[in-house]
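Supplementary Note 3. Input sequence used for the single-chain structure prediction.
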Amino acid sequence: MITRADSPRMVVISDLHLGNPFSSVRRRTVSFIHWAAANGYDICVNGDGFDVAQVSLGRFTHDVPEVLQALRGAIDKGSAVYYVVGNHDIVFEHFLIDWGGFKLAPFLNVRCGNLRVRVEHGHLYDPFFVLSPRLYDFCTWLGGLALALHPSLYRSWIRFERLRSRFTRKRGMSGIEGEPLSFFESAGRIEARGFDAVVFGHTHHTGWAELPLGGRYINPGSWMLSPHFVKIEDDKTELVNFAREDKVG
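The predicted structure, written as discrete structure tokens, is reproduced below.
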């Protein structure tokens, strides 16, 4: 595994959850990979690109080969492809290593010109995951069962988290709506180590917030909800909606 990447320009996506019964992002993901390679971007999948924890075997075998083929095509065109391990794909890491196409990482310190960006899936900053791992795994399994039966429950849960955060956060508190404050606080601690921006995934909540020292915390969310990605180039980071970029790119 590696932990550092020097890249002139990079795009970061997160939480595709290919193989999950709710995930229907294969076509758009392939389109994004082709677009990124054609425009000379390195590509980073920031965890949970492939979903083993809530897998549907039929969905997995249908979606994953085409995405892997697209990534191989991007590598052949000169793009570096990085894969940061998440909590839904950690048991898949040996396959990713053996496949040989990815530069696998537990986290990634990206140097882009004068910009330093930390890319990490973020599950280690989730209080529920850290404090109650067995209960978290059980709830993940239960959630996968619920998704198989009623996929619409996923969007309802995300809306509930956003609504809850509006009432539980004190006025003036920073962070991304829907996330526990621990993610913003952890991003601030990473920023203090010399980073200009911090990119997490995991929470599936899209947004960005200014960090205490003037840097930026960004979460592209999950493509199961909206196709956002982080663009790193020209000494800046930007949160972009691929649905719009694809029309003008």
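The radius of gyration is 17 Å. The chain has a mean pLDDT of 84.
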